Protein: ferredoxin--NADP(+) reductase
Organism: Streptomyces bathyalis
Amino acid sequence: MAYAITQTCCKDASCVSVCPVNCIRPTPEERDFGSTEMLHVDPQTCIDCGACADACPVDAVLPVDSLGAAQREYADINAAYFEHAEEESEARSAETDGHGPIFHAWGEPAFERVLPPDFGPLRVAIVGTGPAGMYAAEDLLLHTRAEVTLVDRLPAAGGLVRYGVAPDHPATKKAGDTFARFHTHPRVRMHLGLEVGRDVTAEELAAHHDAVIYAVGAAADRRLGIPGEDRTGSLAATTVVAWYNAHPEVAPDAVDLSAERVVVVGNGNVALDVARILVSDPEALAGTGIARHALAELRRSKVREVVVLGRRDPDHAAYTRSELRALKHLPEVDLVVDDHDPRIGAVIDAAGPKDKAAVLRGVTREAVDWSVAPDAAGGRRRIVFRFLSAPMEMCGDEHIRAVRVTGGNGELQIPAGMALRAIGYRGVPPAGLPFDEAAGTVRHEHGRVTGRAGTYVVGWIKRGPSGGIGVNRACAAETVGTLLADAVAGVLPAPTGRPKAFHRLARRRR
Ligand SMILES: Cc1cc2nc3c(=O)[nH]c(=O)nc-3n(C[C@H](O)[C@H](O)[C@H](O)COP(=O)(O)OP(=O)(O)OC[C@H]3O[C@@H](n4cnc5c(N)ncnc54)[C@H](O)[C@@H]3O)c2cc1C
Ligand code: SF4
Ligand code: SF4
């Protein structure tokens, strides 16, 4: 028996450093780490100690023999990762005479930060309590004597872990508990419901701290720029995500599920999240943290079919394999690939085992007749993937009635009463910081905001809106490393006030 890493892996690499036999790959130092969607356990070397499972913030590591039906394939997925690790095989330990477990060599120990023994406690403000802000706080609290002021504009901490991650991913939501350990740390003061730029200015925050880290995420959605985008029934997927997560700024009646067919434009993980929630059995969602108003609307829902529309072919879709695989296990839900273009089937048929398109092998392919209303036979719902197709117009009068799309032999209209654009999030320039409009990110060097001594960025506002929760960990380590180097070099501007005065100001303004 061995352990295996499964669907919810968010790549924070907590497991790597606790594995006594170094058998979790790729490690953050390896080239593959940037492109891999998840980490893998080498079953030949794993000694079953369970340390990785204890360290994992999202319960992604499980003993192979405890994997349920929906996760069983992860045993093979983990093992397959090591099949061609030729250098590893060469390094088989001499004692095992080449027949025992693969010996995974340890890298050279690296000490990237060295702080002088008299390094005093820094006062650091962090704006944003999502994963990026909390990884930065954790790094500062665990490795220095810093005092940290946490600020968030929302009444609950957690950023997108609280208000973005889908409610039927409770293991992923658990990452919020890991971060919450630091909310009550003796060297932390937290101000919720306090917006920098509205309730306090960036200058006030900076004046009371040695450094400020902006971890404000990417709150805005991208627009399609096509006619009819503002018709009733055409919404941003961000609105639906916020709605089912009980975001305080989205009204309980913001989403009306009276349409039988919904078109979701985009095929990243957010598109799949929304599609999955719309076709799931509401009773299966009842035990999750889903907003009560969303559950009530889902129980009334008329939605029979969700069409996921993507410009690219099935091998280049933006979603991850694990999110697509999970859809195949949804009870009472059929998956269909719209076979409107011969290239789609060709890509799926030609896909190698590691290609994304291979996950769609075995999924029904049919040339969908859009003139027929979604089939309600047997109470089953379905998700239709339409690849190589782009939206041209949201058609209708006041309300959307159809989406005009390209693909196959020209254009056609897909009748639909609702269309959701899920084509990405976008950063909003915080506190007048230098902003790259094209990328939607703050300009920086290794996390230090360009031309702003003492000001730093981390997370989606630094890198752009992609990457799971765990990716923010390495991002935070880089930013905190830069901040500490600046502190050691004595280039942080001297604050004019103390954090205590800021806390009083924050209480007054809130
Ligand atoms: C819908 C959705 C589902 C996702 N699901 C998963 C998943 O299942 N697994 C996974 O690994 N990753 C998932 N992700 C990705 C993950 O959520 C991100 O990697 C991560 O949240 C980015 O962290 P962040 O801290 O940069 O931003 P955020 O999480 O957005 O945090 C930013 C915080 O800053 C606060 N803020 C903004 N402006 C101000 C201001 N002016 N003053 C004070 N506070 C401010 C916000 O209120 C927010 O709390 C998902 C993302 C989305 C959008
Ligand atoms: S169970 Fe132990 S040996 Fe196996 S992968 Fe996890 S930490 Fe490593
Ligand atoms: S989420 Fe982190 S700790 Fe859990 S398996 Fe993935 S990389 Fe390892």
